[in-house]
Amino acid sequence: MDPYAALRYREFNIFLGVRFAMVFAWAMQFIVIEWQVYSLTKDPLSLGIIGLMEVIPAVSTALFAGHFVDQKEKRNLLVKCIIGFSIVSLGLFILSLPQLANHISASTILYSIYFLVFLGGIVRAFLGPTIFSLIALIVPKKAYPNAATWSSTTWQFASVLGPALAGFSISWIGIHWSMCLIFGFSIIALIGLLQISRKPILNPKLGEPILQSLKEGIRFVFGKKSIFGALTLDMIAVLFGGAMALLPIYAQDILHVGAEGFGVLRAAPAVGASITMIGSTRFPLHHNAGKKLLLAVFGFGICMILFGISTSFWLSVGALFLSGALDGISMIVRQTILQLKTPDHMRGRVASVNSMFVGSSNELGAFESGLTAKLMGTVAAVVFGGCMTLLTVGITAYVSPTFRRLDLRKDIEEHEAIT
């Protein structure tokens, strides 16, 4: 297998640059918002509300977004998504003006931030399915698995640098100019995307009634055991096992490491995932994919428990690093399953269901973490989430022997045979 197969296509390299800029900006923006909101409120529940404000529109519009993406030209639709994100970033930049705090109350600033996060959730509902669908139009089918790996690796690299730079930039240049930097990256992404040509619409059912279209997409996902199993496992693990929303509390009140330490903690999981994904270009995870996914999520839960009880900064960094490396395995397997087993004309709808299962579970997980931290304390909330992750893996392994035996080698060979 050629580890650089997808990189031999010029537009795919441009696409990776666009995706890096967008994920970098989005990840950095979320971190800056978390820091600003917790500094305003000192309330862990306020961190959970950030996730809730993004997940409500993302979930409620996801299925419609998938239908819309399958019906429209993908490049121009992604242009509109980036413009929408840029508007949200510009609004957050204005809200962070230091002199604004002298004229309006902190609660007004807080609710305005929540409103802009809500608008960003609507944009995200369309962004994920559009990106997923566009990949398949840039590279040939034989390069799908390799393209999925490189795309996920780029996502993780951006997730490393975005949070890390957010922590340092808050310390060095403040929240306001950090928001300005985020807006600049969104403009860079927009300029890069315009270098990619428009793509054909491959849906043979243009104009299909929306209800019929949505039913077909849902029926497909629930009927494919490999897709449904991977999405369900990852959704529940992220929902209960993620502790990222509570990192400002750990950085400020438990580990006492400030904004720079916060950036290191936030970046550690993505560093681990990036290393995993780079390695996967040389050592694919297709053999015994089901077992590897189950073991990876189990290990992720152990890492979350270790992080929860740690009072050492570097032990906490190590636990988050390992959790990211294991989460990288989960992401690669899941994305490969989706790319290999989804027909071209249904990519938008399948990606939307994926965003409802997995993407939105990050924000619901943030709300769950904030709520449980409010009710039982921060450390207990993280340990509880890790234990729930372990329980989820055990139940999945027991009730789904088909998923345990999942192997993707045959699917890979079939796609590589396509010229």
Task: Provide structural commentary.
By secondary structure, this protein is an all-alpha fold. The chain has a single domain (6-196, 207-416), classed as MFS general substrate transporter like domains (Growth Hormone, Chain: A). It has helices spanning 10-41, 44-60, 62-71, 74-95, 106-138, 144-172, 174-193, 210-223, 225-241, 247-254, 258-282, 289-309, 313-341, 347-376, 378-399, 401-404, 409-416. The longest helix is centred in the first third of the chain and has 33 residues, at 106-138. It is globular. The protein starts with 9 loop residues before the first helix and ends with a helix.
CATH hierarchy, class: Mainly Alpha
CATH homology group: MFS general substrate transporter like domains
Radius of gyration: 20 Å
- Gross geometry: globular
What is the helix/strand order?
A: HHHHHHHHHHHHHHHHH
Low-confidence parts lasting 5 or more residues at pLDDT below 50? none
Secondary-structure map with pairings?
Elements: H1 10-41, H2 44-60, H3 62-71, H4 74-95, H5 106-138, H6 144-172, H7 174-193, H8 210-223, H9 225-241, H10 247-254, H11 258-282, H12 289-309, H13 313-341, H14 347-376, H15 378-399, H16 401-404, H17 409-416
